[in-house]
Design goal:
single chain, 456 residues, alpha+beta, 2-methylcitrate dehydratase PrpD, 60s Ribosomal Protein L30, Chain: A, two-stranded antiparallel sheet, globular, disordered N terminus
Length: 456
């Protein structure tokens, strides 16, 4: 390899991929702050809940049927099913099922959904290797941090250019996580990240279709496969993030090594954002504003003249389907979700999201009263809402959905309630309770036992 090909030409940071790999390789469960471990446990809880709720989805069944047709060594559990498949098949299927409802967690540094990309790969690998929950948490945090730092490396241009970061950056986080569980050294971990980087893809234009949840499964599959190939000795470039025609220079106009490597004591998992509405996170601040105004002022929909949403311009390419025709499209429609909140719909209830709901006459009338103004003077998850009433009043609210809850006990209670609501219809009350108890003592639980409890 000549000097030109190996030199970092996108910035002035040498060995960036290796430095991130070293960070992942050094991650030790016993050294993690207690709040970091707690958020990691909550991520696992929430991820299993949304995966079980999505386990009977059309896309999940397509992928399960494909795995059955392909065959292979039964080494890992398909969540919500009796089937056991290969580890990479399980990563793909469980990743898709955990993202198909768009109810899984978010991190704004990664600009996507970390748990749905990382945990399907990691649980499949951990189950096949007899690992415990403590190992799972250690590796998950390692991969989560790499994913967020790579997200910052290429922000904001990577996402703005049209890449779905859950699929692209998420695969690199999954590779780093699996490399940590496999005990790879920093050099092998860098190769794993690089093998994942050369597979990266995923288009935002697919939002509102089954390809979006498929992206999460692809990230998990590619990340797991990359780590296993690196462990077997496959050679890539160890500098795929920073090299000429590498991940950063090819997939983003931005290259921010200081952001990726800065503040070594920071854990980005503390910024994890959990969902309590089953729609694109870009709609959540507007939903909260409309709900707040509706409840505080006893608004009747028929008394509303118009609703004005003011949100970050990035939402235009993320959740601005103006007239959705399917339940999937509705989740990516600011206008429709604003109308749903105004009508008092329970947007945490999966039963609300049906194709027929998008044709509901009352909701369509309200949807057509909602307008969206895209601006660039605010954080990406802040929304301002003005509701103009027919009696001349103007009601205003602002909400920032980008601020994580730092009361972890309260967050745990909310997530447990969400979990029960999602899981009991799938497994029944008794099995749901058993699974919750396993998750409460996750560090000491065999991942294989945890996954068995997720099967039907």
């Amino acid at each position: 390899m000549n000097d030109t090909a190996s030199r970092d030409v996108t910035g002035n940071q040498d060995h960036l991929t290796l430095k991130l790999a070293e960070r992942a390789q050094r991650t030790q469960a016993d050294d993690l702050p207690s709040d970091v471990r707690e958020v990691a446990r909550q991520c696992v809880l929430d991820w299993i809940g949304v995966a079980l709720a999505g386990s009977d989805d059309h896309l999940t069944r397509i992928l399960l049927d494909e795995a059955a047709a392909d065959g292979g060594k039964p080494a890992a559990t398909v969540i919500g099913h009796a089937a056991r498949v290969t580890t990479t098949q399980a990563a793909l299927i469980n990743g898709a099922s955990s993202h198909v409802l768009d109810y899984d967690d978010v991190n704004l540094s990664l600009n996507g959904h970390p748990s749905a990309a990382i945990l399907p790969a990691l649980t499949a690998l951990a189950e096949s290797r007899g690992a415990r929950g403590k190992d799972l948490i250690e590796a998950f945090v390692a991969g989560y941090e790499v994913g967020c730092r790579v997200g910052l490396l290429v922000a904001p241009g990577h996402y703005a250019r049209g890449y779905h970061s859950t699929c692209t950056v998420g695969a690199l986080g999954a590779a780093a996580a699996c490399a940590r569980l496999l005990g790879l050294d920093a050099e092998r971990t860098a190769h794993a990240i690089s093998i994942a980087a050369t597979q990266a893809g995923g288009l935002k234009s697919m939002f509102g279709t089954e390809c979006k949840p498929f992206h999460a499964g692809v990230a998990a599959h590619n990340g797991l496969r990359a780590a296993r190939l690196a462990a077997a000795g496959m050679v890539s470039r160890p500098d795929a993030l920073e090299c000429r025609q590498g991940f950063a220079s090819t997939m983003s106009p931005d290259f921010n090594p200081q952001a990726a490597l800065g503040d070594p004591a920071r854990f980005y998992i503390r910024d994890n954002l959990f969902k309590y509405h089953a729609s694109c996170y870009g709609t959540h601040a507007s939903i909260e504003c409309v709900r707040q105004l509706r409840e505080a002022n006893a608004i009747r929909p028929e008394d509303v003249e118009r609703v004005k949403l003011r949100v970050d311009k990035g939402a235009d390419a993320m959740c601005n389907i103006p007239n959705p025709r399917t339940a999937l499209e509705a989740k990516f429609s600011l206008r429709f979700m604003g109308a749903a909140a105004l009508a008092g719909a329970d947007t945490s209830d999966l039963a609300f999201f049906k194709d027929a709901t998008t044709a509901d006459a009352t909701l369509c009338v309200l949807r057509d009263k909602v307008s969206v103004d895209f601006v660039s003077d605010r954080p990406k998850m802040v929304a301002d809402v003005v509701i103009e009433m027919k009696d001349g009043r103007e009601l205003r609210a602002t909400h920032d959905a980008g601020v994580p809850l730092n009361d972890y006990a309260m967050q745990g209670r909310r997530l447990a309630a969400k979990f029960e609501r999602l899981v009991e219809p799938v497994l029944g009350e008794a099995r749901c309770g058993k699974l919750l108890r396993l998750l409460e003592r996750l560090e000491d639980t065999l991942v294989a036992d945890l996954m068995t409890a997720c099967a039907k």
